[in-house]
Amino acid sequence: MRILFFTPCKPQPTGYGLAMRAHAVAEALRRLGDVVVSEGPWRGNLNAFTRVHAFRFATVQYVKPFLGKVPCDLDLDELESTTRRRLGHPVQAIWYRWRERRWLPRFRRVYVASEVERAGLPGLADVRVLPNTVVLPVPRIPHVNARPIALFVGNPNYAPNKDAVAYIIRHLAPRVPEVDFYITGGAPARTARRGWLGYGGGP
């Protein structure tokens, strides 16, 4: 089997969440056959593949030439319409919902990261949960602080991560004053630094 894997980012075993999920999906596909990774439209022979797998909704446009010719699967990770609505962008949510209704039924199988996302797709025949994973073993970091440490890792420019940081600062951290909180994963905005002992750039 030869599989064409569309992804909006380079698959990496470490780093930010999107790249790590792309890596996990690519590795799973490699157990099924040869995988060709493409971060944009495929310019080669359309008959060179027996299966196409698209990662994230942004790549569905690249799959169009293959629909109806070979089995095509889509890993949504998360529902863009739901995410935009939760973040207070109703116009974007409506636009994404319209596109999701148009595109998702065209795929043989759709994958999502959680049961919450699957519940948002009741009309599709085959929706499967593929949880996010971390490549092990993770290097062990020596513990040099007597106090417990909570580390948040995430791109601070990604809106859901901003929400998570705000929630931790406002609701979680005050409940556990004995814990030192740190943030990493890029250069956080100054507003995200308030209430945190440390911050730093990611790899």
Descriptive report:
- There is one protein chain.
- This protein has 203 residues and is α/β, with parallel strands linked by helices.
- The protein folds into two domains: 2-129, Rossmann fold (3-Layer(aba) Sandwich), CATH 3.40.50; 149-200, no CATH class.
- It has seven helices and nine strands.
- It has helices spanning 17-30, 60-63, 80-86, 90-103, 115-119, 159-172, 190-193, and strands at 2-6, 34-38, 51-55, 72-77, 109-112, 127-129, 149-153, 180-184, 198-200.
- A six-stranded parallel β-sheet has the order 2-1-3-4-5-6. A three-stranded parallel β-sheet has the order 7-8-9, with no helix packed on it.
- β8, α7 (190-193) and β9 (198-200) form a beta-alpha-beta unit.
- α3 runs antiparallel to α4.
- The longest helix is centred in the N-terminal third of the chain and has 14 residues, at 17-30.
- Residues 191-203 have low confidence and may be disordered.
Oligomer: single chain
Structural Rg: 19 Å
What is the strand content?
Answer: 15-25%
Shape, principal axes of CA atoms:
globular
CATH architecture of the largest domain: 3-Layer(aba) Sandwich
Structural class: alpha/beta
Number of strands: 9
Detail the poorly predicted runs. Answer: 191-203
Q: SSE order, as H and E? A: EHEEHEHHEHEEHEHE
Mean pLDDT: 84
* Overall number of structural domains: 2
Strand order of the largest sheet: 2-1-3-4-5-6
| N-end to C-end Cα span | 35 Å
Helix content: 25-40%
The biggest beta sheet reads: 6 strands, parallel
| CATH fold-level label of the largest domain | Rossmann fold
Q: Helical element count?
A: 7
Q: Please identify the top-level CATH class of the largest domain.
A: Alpha Beta
